[in-house]
Amino acid sequence: MNKMEKLQSAKSKKTKKKPVKHKISYQVKPEKMSLEEWQIALRKQVALQEKFVISCVDDELRPGEYCVRNPKSEQEYKVVYRGAKSEWNYCSCMDFKTSQLGTCKHVEAVKHWLGGSSKRRVHAETPSYTSVYLSYKAERQVHIRIGLDNADAFRSLASKYFDSDGVLLDKSYRHFGDFLKAALNIDDTFRCYKDALDFVVDKRESLQREEILNGYSSTDIENLLKTKLYDYQKEGIRFAAKAGRVVIADEMGLGKTIQAIGTAELLRKEGLVDSILILCPTSLKYQWKREIEKFTDTTATVIEGSHLKRKYMYLSQDTYKIVSYNSACNDIKILGSLTTDMVIMDEVQRLKNWNTQISIAARRIDSRYSVILSGTPFENKLEELYSVMEFVDQFCLGPYYKFKDKYIITDENGKMLGYKNLNSIGDKLSDILIRRRKKEVALQLPERIDKNLFIPVTKQQMEMHNELKYTVGRIIQKWNKAHFLSEKDRRRLLLCLSQMRMLCDSTYILDQKTRFDTKIEETMNILDGIFNGGDDKVVIFSQWERMTRLVARELEKKGIRYDNLNGSMSASSRKDSVNDFTDNPESRVFLSTDAGCTGLNLQVASVVINLDLPWNPAVLEQRIARIYRIGQKKNIQVINLVAPNTIEEQMLGKLKFKSLMFEGVLDKGDDSVFMDNNKFSRLMDTIGDVMADDNDDLKTGEQVVEATDTEMLSEEKPKEQAQESVTETLPDENYEEIPMTSETQPASGSSSLPAQDMPQPKTNSGGNSQQQLVTDGISFLSRLSETLKSPEETEKFVSNLVVEDKETGEVSLRIPVPNKQVVKQFLDVVSKLFGA
């Protein structure tokens, strides 16, 4: 072999690539793996990817114990490893405790580390000491492991308290203290791990509460509060006190607040709690204070003001302390955690997403008892229910991968299609979740009448609506072709859809100049009919504060007194507004955005007018529940104003589907959610579902111009940009939800996004069509010029226009057009041009 051949051979060996090991999908289970094997393999995969720092705790004194540190998160975990299949393996992370796999990424990292080149020793032998530990395999159980020292004595003692498999007997929980004393007398090296001891304590306290409640009569529970309780409310208090950690998910209007206060008073009376922390939306802080002081003999502190002031208010001697979600979130960031005997969380749907700041902060509230309140424990996704239940019991629904496998239907690519086995979820939660509906309790509530009024929009509204709709169609077509949207396209899609909904109400919401609308006039006609026929009061809801502003102007013209509520108002102003509407007979109308659709008691009214429909059916019901609740003596009427042939009308069917899904889980409705043609529908109302109902272009994929990023962002923007804040997230699974609360919502007239990013439909009111034609032509030439400056963009442009026949090699131009008539008109113009 000559020198050149040797060099080539060496180079070949040097550049020879190692075989690439295929990654295991996080979304789709491989066919040859069981569910558990797949999950273990994923944890092994992560263990190899992350750079953990592993060290022995003490090989002499604590063999088999390791410290695993994650440099990125700066978190440390205790790991015990005694062999690949040892039931004594342990990790302090939550995944190990909830996955039921007997392993986690930290355990797998230690396993890999021990099997490295240094061949470190695996301590698989039985330790010398005896210990009691908590097993996290399947259902949690307290186990005993007999060590080598004094083994016979420990076996003899264990036989009185544990079964033959080493599992603590149910009857032994009461006498566990006696066992611990006897075990320490045998050998002072005996260990009882903290999680096992906490589990035993929880069991014993549960038995104690059960004994206490057995001694409570119906009258005893009634005497807890200074108000009359319905039987189902007494049942709710008894249920919550017995469970200790519970979700009260009664339908809105059935008095969940009273039940929470009653539960707190029962536990306080029995000496089980001294401090109670209430988390709620800002708008409800003073309502909670008012009801606590009305129904009990105690005072309540509202925690507010600067952070330093709030810090000292947590130390108040008052039993009840009330704080908004956002204030608590900020305080936990600084203080690290909050500690209380009992926590009450109102409107818990704010915690439905794992990764929101409020949700993360709420997990760091240390409390032995908790009462979670929500008539809608989930609103859009079944996964939201799983997240909410974690605040009550992280083990009640099992590991998430099993939950997903049992209840969520996906296609071969892992894409969610629908749900199954919904009724069994309610059965699984029966010990820690209680839910009653109005029709199930003997309250004899008045009749509720729902009516949809279809109010045609003006020509100007429809033109602007359809222009936005066309833009949405182009973006959806782009998604259908590539299954990808840039962040700019996604933001534009969100804004266009929101503005379409705004236009169903009035053009004023967009520009604050023009007033093309029909709903305002119709609303005033409805009010005239109501007020001429009696003394009924009316609550009017709209997503948009500017829409309520228009109604307010008309009410002022007619001399009709009203009160209002929106997200920019302070808590005290909201309280005053609600009190005035409730107590003043001259105040006939209450105007509110969705900032006021949770928690408020407005049953003094008997009519709800919804100027627009929210994406979410739960929000719609929350609006109605402000008047359709306990204390309502009149028949109530719900009037929904719907713009026909618009996105608003298309939403009606979607709202119905979501309601069916909700009933399936908590209200024993249909066990699975189906749509037409026997296909499972997606849970979330995707944008394509809503828009495709009457847009054939989106279904066929033909005659739609594909939208490029350059085209989307280079349109001429008007000087005045719409700035109505979008306070509601769209049902798009690709977005991480950023909840807009009454505290984070921008003030009226501001936007959470830069004004220049808000796309504006063109208005034809008073415009010059010829001038617009020139403007459009200049805009087209400008964009074409910018495109041709870039070789890459030019290549893309040519590729989109040129088509080559693969068989004949013939090259032709492809120019998408709306229809044949457009081509004919164009040729007529060209013909006349050449004739001239």
3D structure, described in words:
The protein is α/β, with parallel strands linked by helices and 836 residues long. Among the domains are: 35-202, no CATH class; 216-440, Tandem AAA-ATPase domain (Rossmann fold, 3-Layer(aba) Sandwich), CATH 3.40.50.10810; 769-835, no CATH class. The chain is 43% helix and 13% strand. The chain has 31 helices and 26 strands. The chain has a seven-stranded parallel beta sheet. Helix 2 crosses helix 4, helix 5 (151-161) packs antiparallel against helix 6 and helix 18 (459-482) packs antiparallel against helix 19. The protein is flat and about 105 Å long.
The CATH H-level homologous superfamily of the domain at 216-440? Tandem AAA-ATPase domain
Structural class: alpha/beta
Overall pLDDT: 78
Query: Low-confidence parts lasting 5 or more residues at pLDDT below 50?
Result: 11-20, 673-686, 694-769
Distance between the termini: 81 Å
Report strand %: 5-15%
**Strands, total number:** 26
Number of helices: 31
Find the CATH topology of the domain at 216-440: Rossmann fold
What characterizes the major β-sheet? Answer: 7 strands, parallel
Topology:
Layout: H1 3-15, H2 35-49, E1 53-58, E2 62-70, E3 75-80, E4 90-91, H3 94-99, H4 105-114, E5 131-135, E6 141-145, H5 151-161, H6 176-186, E7 191-192, H7 194-214, H8 218-222, H9 231-243, E8 245-248, H10 256-269, E9 276-280, H11 285-295, E10 300-302, H12 307-313, E11 320-324, H13 325-335, E12 338-339, E13 342-345, H14 357-362, E14 365-366, E15 369-373, H15 382-389, H16 400-407, E16 408-410, E17 416-419, H17 422-428, E18 433-434, E19 448-454, H18 459-482, H19 487-505, H20 508-511, H21 519-532, E20 538-541, H22 545-558, E21 562-565, H23 571-583, E22 589-592, E23 607-610, H24 617-624, E24 636-642, H25 647-666, H26 687-691, H27 696-700, H28 709-713, H29 769-789, H30 791-801, E25 802-804, E26 811-813, H31 820-835
Parallel strand pairs: 5-7, 8-15, 8-18, 9-11, 9-13, 10-11, 12-14, 13-15, 19-24, 20-22, 20-23, 21-22, 23-24
Antiparallel strand pairs: 1-2, 2-3, 3-4, 5-6, 16-17, 25-26
Helix pairs in contact: 2-4, 5-6, 7-9, 9-10, 18-19
